[in-house]
Amino acid sequence: MRSRQYDLDFRDRARRIRTWGIGLLSLAALLWTWCGLLLLTPYEVDRKPDDRYPAECESRLFTDRGTANDGLYRHDWCQNERDWPEAMLLLGLSLPVTAVGVALFTTGSVTRTMSAHGEAMRELDKLAGTPKA
Question: Are 31 and 92 within 8 A, CB to CB?
């Protein structure tokens, strides 16, 4: 009976590891979504506090004009609002989070599957009347 309790504890630990992996992968997805919003959505910039007519800026990634990339020397307000390093920082942070999340998810899933396989093999051995090795 002790081995069954150990197996259940083992599976519970594997489930917790897998859950941590899912949580980290969810966090990485949020970081990717935030980065995508920064790069893909148009935005507005106030030229002064409480500006009634803010400057409209194209998205950082899909701009045909220089509003997002080289407007600093023309006193373009869009240049300083969304900066490339912020988006790249989000991508940089998401990479280790993703790697650890994948590792934990995979470890938990494989551990749980192998435990279930071992139990199934023990049950088949009992049914076949094969002595334990």
Answer: no
